[in-house]
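Hi L.,

You mentioned the student needs an example of a multi-chain input paired with its predicted structure. This one should do, with 1251 residues in total across all chains.
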Amino acid sequence: MKPARFDYVAPTNLDDALSALAAGGGEARALAGGQSLVPMLNFRLGGPATLVDLNAVDELAFVEPTEEGGLRLGAMARQQTLEHDPLVRIRAPLLAEAAPWIAHAQIRSRGTIGGSLAHADPAAELPALLMVLGAQARVARAARGSESGARIERASSLCDLYLGPFFTSLEADEILTEVEIPGLRVGEGTAFAELARRRGDYAIVGVAVRVRLGADGLCEDAAISLINAGPTPCLAEDAAAALLGEVPTPAAIANAAEIASLQCSPAADMHGSVAYRRHLVRVLTNRVLLRARGRARERVV
Amino acid sequence: MSDVSIRTRINGEEWTGAVEPRLLLSDFLRGNLGLTGTHVGCEHGVCGACTVRFDGDPVRACLMFAVQIDGHEIETVEGLSPAAGTDLRIADLHPIQRAFHETHGLQCGFCTPGILMTVASFLERNPKPSDREIREAISGHLCRCTGYHNIVAAVARAAELLTEVEA
Amino acid sequence: MSDRRRWIGERVPRIEDARLLTGRAPFVDDWEPPGTLHVAFVRSNLPHAKILDIDTAAAAAHPGVAAIYTAEDLGALCCPGPVLVPPPPIEGAIFHARTPLPLAREIVRHQGEPLAMIVADSRYIAEDAAALVSVDLDALDAVVDLSTALNEGAPLVHSDLGSNLAAHVRQTKGDYEAAKSAADRVVARRFRYDRGVAAAIENRGVLAEWDARADRLRVWDTTQAPIPIRAAIASTLGLSEAQVRVIAPFIGGGFGPKVMFYAEEILIPWVAMQLGRPVKWIEDRYENFFATTQEREQLHESELALTEDGRILGVRDHFLHDSGAYDPYGLTVPINSQCTLLGPYRIPNYESEFRVVFTNKPMVTPVRGAGRQHGVFVMERLLDIAAKELGLDRLDIRAKNLLDPDEFPHNHEIIYQDSAPLTYDSGNYAPALAEAARLIGYHDFENERRAAAADGKRIGLGIVNYVEGTGIGPYEGARITVEPSGKVRAATGVGTQGQGHFTAFAQVVAEAVGVNPADVRIVTGDTSEFHWGTGTFASRGAVVAGNAFGAAAQAVREKILAHASEALEVSEEDLELVDGTARVRGAPDVSIALGELARRANPLRGAVKPGTEPGLEATSYFGPERGTTANGVHALIVAVDPETAMVDILRYVVVHDCGTVINPMIVEGQIHGGVALGIGNAFYEELTFDEFGGTTNASFMDYLLPTATDVPAIETAHMVTPSPLNPMGTKGVGEAGAIPVAAAFVQAVEDALREVAPTLELVDIPLSPGRLFEALQDAGEEA
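Structure written out for the whole complex:
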């Protein structure tokens, strides 16, 4: 279990990293925290000719507040930041709540936010968490051929990022550089739960939700995202929509959970059948919505 | 690809030299430096036996390349206590090591060095952990001998000993 | 003797810890002589195939590759390995021995079977070259499913046998049919126990160095049995045993599979001699899932015949045992299942028949528990089901059938793995069961259950018995020497994999010769230090090697006393051995240090008296006539979430009896680890295969070992019924913790769900949340 040979570059700024990736012509890969990529290299499952190590690109390693009360998370911010940074706890309590469930401390210390998002494991927590918060990703690449300027950047919703298991809309020369999430609004509550075989494992099924209640107690906004309940991290849009304009009574929540369960498309594996996963989606969605509702009520003014 | 020069500090000592980019940090520490206290159990980042501290944080040495420690600091089990020479006395060991000895927190000892490195970081961050917090902190380590019972006791004892040291 | 400082029974912290905690204790992979070459194997990715061609030309041309070998290149070395454990002499038993070649020729019979060996400057380069070897395999239908492997028309693992039957054994006691016809109730069920890996955190490894000037071979090996390995290497390579030194240094966990004689253990020394360079192979985790032996798949069809009031009249158990592609370890595992099923119970009639089956899966040899799990699972499940059907309390039905203390020795009239009749030496079962019930709160549990239910929690309790045959022969030995420094060195042949041998054996020696255990330096697992013995397996170290140390220590004590008596001019009866001195009772100032006596016993001038031996040294051996019988009770409380099928273990209690305890701290540690492995087997670990026989979860990401958040705190209590079969009265404990866990676990889960799913019956291991969910769905449909 030793990796095959590769060429290695360790640029110290984003432009150099983008150039190096572009120069690889599809045979180069960005190395972020490496907590998923290096095991694959050790198993010799696919071997890039060149690794472009982003760990010295300090400009991507940040967690910053936005003026709108939200956060910008640089791609190379370590996952453990979500657990320990007080700013995250205040502005994105969902991320702080869920961070301890992302693998183990020794992985979170090295694993990055951007790496997890770009890896597109349908069983990973971060894509679903950021999706339910309405995150926007920024993606950059070096200018190609006739394009002017050094760097071309684009924005992408997280939903548009995911095309299939371990398959994103990122081009081979693109790097996901950061995500931005809006701040928690008045009347908004979030919650997360997952079931895993063991602490730190990928989820059998996980659910993250965001609910906003008006002063009248009606649901003004809701989002539900599912972990490992389909080929990609995904929003259960119909389930969330069923809550809009409703008082989130236990019956309304159970109804939303039922819709999520019916509409998700999980796969079977050694840890559970399709029926078991659908069932867990219903159970967890129900539980998590109740918890988020309680938190939202505390934030209604 | 040709070797890449790196400059790093290992257990407080400067090291400069060149390494092949694909050389795993675990193999570098063991093979190039002879720091064989860092053990290799799975080489895919699950068992935790190879855990070392990278700038103070516990990391899997099998999921990093040696080139990546350029400009950074690594601490291995050999750096925990200064013990040298032939007369290895428990009293001279690091409080965490002493705690593992007192509580029978190791059997075959293969997974132990990695756990010690995680615990060192954990107790810095959380000097008075609960049983639950201890179990979560070491849940990224596989031990097949102890059933974890005495490892949990060892971490609790280490927290006590470290507090005594500071007091 | 009242003067002795008691070390046996003390919680002496381990002497070996300091080296392990500082990372100095050397494991096999920590040695690397200059110029060492590294080996990688090309292994079959198919479970059953005809080998058409192996083209190594491109790999051989790869820079840094020293040599490549296929079966064709091995010459006489390419012959089937030995049958390590010949089957015991059981009347009418059939056994077909089939053992693997070092490198496969013509046919591969399981995934991961080695096809080619690459020797290179580094493991990295060896793996680069392995990727360049072109292997042309023609896939054959594979035998995967144990239940259909003996069917007419099934593909054949060994075509010359005409079927996949590896062995057939029937053992009986009394007349089960007659018991059945007299019974008020017969409970019949099918049980399944699936396959897992031992997963020592250290993988296997071998390093060999041929010293051409000394004409000697040195081999470092992660083996549990260095002495038999030395014999096998010497005889295979045509060397004298004196030319071969096998060192089993610190071993990172054994758990059974490291007691094999594997192809790598002969290939690596052979290559080292061929090339005249040190050669090292370290198994990686992926290889470990194929190249190291595994255990546990069995299918049982079982019956329990009882009276109305729950008295056992007889048991019938027919089972299939999956041996994997070969059977080098004989019948140890299925015989353990057969013999352990009887448990602590009075069972007058027993009919047990098993068929061992070849499949295209990795080889099966003992893994901690070694088949005993299955027997306990079947018996305890039958009792649970019978209790339910008869409306009896599950504790009562057990208590009522326990053997009484006056029924020992108890002959079960069948043959055990050590070829001796299965005869329990001693035991005191009822107090152990009562103590476990008390510790877990059995009699107050209904209140606890109600209180938990009021909090919306469903909790359940499980409590089961087990008996474990331990401490089997043939023998072990020990040599003890008092050195002129006053320190004691002592050597034995068994290797150590974390069991605390350096401390427990030191305690035995220290007590007899009156020194501190810290002054006793134990050497294990180095054939140049001690070369008689078999190894560390079958929960036998403390019993067999322990008593050899005891005997040798007693002999040294006698020599010390004789010399001291002469030196101090007092009779031996007036002497005591304390703090490294021999001194006169009541006059401690009149003393002589052991070191001084050692010098006098080995004088540089003058004469050693005729009829005596030089030095304060003795070598002794201990060979028990048969194995000792340990026993215990496991009890646990679980909380089950019926909505998610997740299970939490809230409490775990073990009451066990391994006779005289040398070091309670070490014994408890053995139990903790065993329980954790048992929890893994019960709820987390399962090796899965696709329909073609390929393993689908060969990584620690997908094969789930329990972690610190999955294993609860474990409460232990010691009962002591000394074995009459050895002077110290010890019984084995190494495997005990792992044996009854699954049986206790499923009982507790069923109990927690008894109101949600009264018909739920868990008969397959491992359980998992997904499986439990399905079982709950099925039970719901039935109800």
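You could point out the following to them. The radius of gyration of chain C is 28 Å. Chain C is about 25% helix and 25% strand.

Best wishes,
N.
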